[in-house]
Write a structure and sequence with these properties.
This protein is of the alpha/beta class and 517 residues long. It has helices at 21-29, 67-79, 98-107, 120-127, 150-156, 159-165, 178-187, 217-224, 241-244, 263-275, 294-305, 318-330, 348-355, 370-377, 398-405, 426-433, 445-457, 463-466, 477-485, 499-516; strands at 5-10, 32-35, 52-55, 83-88, 112-115, 141-145, 168-172, 195-200, 208-213, 230-234, 256-259, 279-282, 286-289, 312-315, 342-345, 386-392, 409-420, 439-442, 471-474, 492-493. The chain is elongated, with a radius of gyration of 28 Å. The structure holds S-adenosyl-L-homocysteine (SAH). One of its GO terms (molecular function) is uroporphyrinogen-III synthase activity.
Length: 517
């Protein structure tokens, strides 16, 4: 069998966007991804569902894989002919043991590539507003491991040289040894007043920074119970933070948001969350599909065969527009045959989807709800008129009922089906259990029910309880009602019912959460 290939990829410090373009390409191309906790599990959203994921990090219920076992695993997978991506936190060559992995691959004649990443040693201080060098403050920096026991540290680090050789000192894996490290640096000549910063989980929602001096930092770390992983920065550059801090000032800083809407539609919401300093966690629980039911096909065909007879085409979602046009195409119906019809859209996104197809909606309600649409059309809806309502299979019955009450003929058309997806995500339950999700967005009633079902299928017996304490932000009152009926407590509702309205609801949640803390 032909041998596979192994990409040893630096994933960057945590923010999934801080991987290199080449690293991302390798990740997407791979059939197996071997990852651990530092190598942003969220990057896994980038790989196809078919790719295998192997977690080799620490787990409470299982022993951690030893480095030798990981080395061998990479070889075994490649010998099976697979393309493998070994994702490593930060840069693979900075305390990443990539040398050992590459060595064994080489020995076995397996081709590999080492794809650099952004090391936490530089990126994490930068996210705290600390540049590791500065024209006036530090013209060099060192990156030092603090992981070993003090006597080993003494053997591997020449403290007298380290202390005095360079400007900024950056310690990785050093939190547990902070007292010892400060003591050595003072002993060998750094002033006790030298500024020190510890930055934990830099570039992620949990980013937290503690500052002090060589003299008092150990006490501060203890007092705050400041846990690893953190980067320790020692030197005058730390003072820059007072002026340069930036991440913490964004409105969604510290908030990791579960985005449940369909993958095809999630990107706009995720991009806005990201832009405002939050961390989107995409977990699409719903997907729109064309029905495979022959009865549905017949019904749509029959309805479209009478295209000339409609006075109204009323669209209540972007999906409705997309799939309606797919059906027109599939049935070979020219849109101009709907010449009599006025088009109405329930919200601006739906109207924009129509506009992209050359159709200007005649009415847009003030409130982006079916109820609002009816209000704004009221004077123009006449008994005897015929309205076509292309929609999803889960659409509410309210609008057609009201149209019928007004004497119109309402033809409901299931142009798409909402199906539940429960993407495999071993990591999500863990993150939820650890309180790592701070807010959830629901953009329709089905995202509520589907998320609960998806979590049940993933092994959560009481998903409502798992979600307790998490801010719940809903696109509108109907979705909020569904959430409440399903045992969730809604924290904020979008006003207006648009994606931007939802993002602003998240901002309100974050402000309230910051006040509570
Ligand atoms: N190869 C990695 C470093 C691996 S050693 C890199 O280049 O970044 C692991 C140590 O890196 C941790 O103990 C911690 O000191 C640091 N680290 C990695 N990611 C971090 C993050 N997001 N925030 C703070 N420290 C981080």
């Amino acid at each position: 069998m032909a041998k596979g290939k192994v990409y040893l990829v630096g994933a960057g410090p945590g923010d999934p966007k801080l991987i290199t373009v080449r690293g991302l390409e390798a990740l997407r191309r791979s059939e197996v991804v071997v990852y651990d906790r530092l190598a942003g599990p969220q990057l896994l959203g980038q790989i196809g569902q078919a790719a295998e994921r192997i977690y080799v990090g620490k787990r409470p219920d299982r022993h951690t894989m030893k480095q030798e076992e990981i080395n061998q695993l990479l070889v075994d997978l490649a010998l099976q002919g697979k393309t493998v991506c070994r994702l490593k936190g930060g840069d693979p060559t900075v305390f990443g043991r990539v040398g050992e992995e590459a060595e064994l691959l080489k020995k076995n004649g397996i081709p590999y590539e080492i794809i650099p990443g952004i090391t936490s040693a530089i990126a994490v201080p930068a996210y705290a507003g600390i540049p590791v060098t500065h024209r006036d403050l530090a013209s060099s920096f060192s990156v030092i491991t603090g992981h070993e026991s003090p006597d080993k540290l003494d053997r591997s680090i020449q403290w007298d040289k380290v202390t005095n050789a360079t400007g900024t000192l950056v310690f990785l894996m050093g939190v547990a040894k902070i007292g010892y490290i400060s003591e050595q640096l003072i002993k060998h000549g750094r002033p006790p007043s030298t500024p020190v910063a510890l930055v934990r989980w830099g570039t992620r929602a949990e980013q937290a920074t503690l500052t002090g001096t060589l003299e008092n930092i150990e006490a501060k770390v203890r007092e705050a119970d400041f846990q690893p992983p953190a980067v320790i920065v020692v030197g005058d550059v730390v003072r820059q933070r007072e002026e340069l801090r930036w991440v913490e000032d964004k409105p969604l800083f510290g908030q990791r948001v579960l985005v449940t809407r369909a993958r095809a539609q999630a990107s706009e919401l995720s991009a806005r969350i990201d832009e405002l300093g939050g961390e989107p966690y995409e977990y699409p629980v719903i997907e729109a599909k064309m029905s495979e039911d022959p009865a549905v096909h017949e019904a749509v065909k029959a309805a479209l065969a009478e295209a000339e007879t409609y006075d109204w085409v009323i669209l209540t979602s972007v999906n409705g527009v997309d799939f309606f046009f797919r059906w027109l195409e599939l049935c070979g119906v020219d849109v101009r045959r709907l010449h009599r019809a006025e088009f109405a859209a329930v919200g601006p996104a739906t109207a924009a989807a129509l506009k992209a197809r050359g159709i200007i909606a005649s009415a847009l309600p003030e409130k982006f709800l079916a109820e609002g649409l009816l209000d704004s059309l009221a004077s123009r809806l006449k008994p005897g008129q015929k309205a076509l309502l292309p929609r999803g299979d889960l659409a509410r019955a309210w609008l057609p009922q009201e149209l019928r009450k007004l004497g119109l003929t309402a033809v409901e058309l299931d142009v798409y089906e909402n199906v539940l997806t429960a993407p495999k995500d071993d990591f999500l339950l863990e993150v939820l259990r650890e309180g790592g999700i701070h807010a959830i967005t629901f953009t329709s009633s089905s995202t509520v029910t589907n998320l609960l079902e998806a979590l049940r299928r993933s092994g959560a017996e009481r998903p409502e309880e798992l979600l307790r304490g998490i801010d719940i932000a809903c696109i509108g009152p109907i979705t909020a009602k569904t959430a409440e009926e399903n045992g969730l407590t809604v924290t904020a509702c979008a006003e207006p019912s648009t994606i931007e309205g939802l993002v602003q609801a998240l901002v309100r949640c974050n402000q309230a959460r910051n006040k509570r803390q």
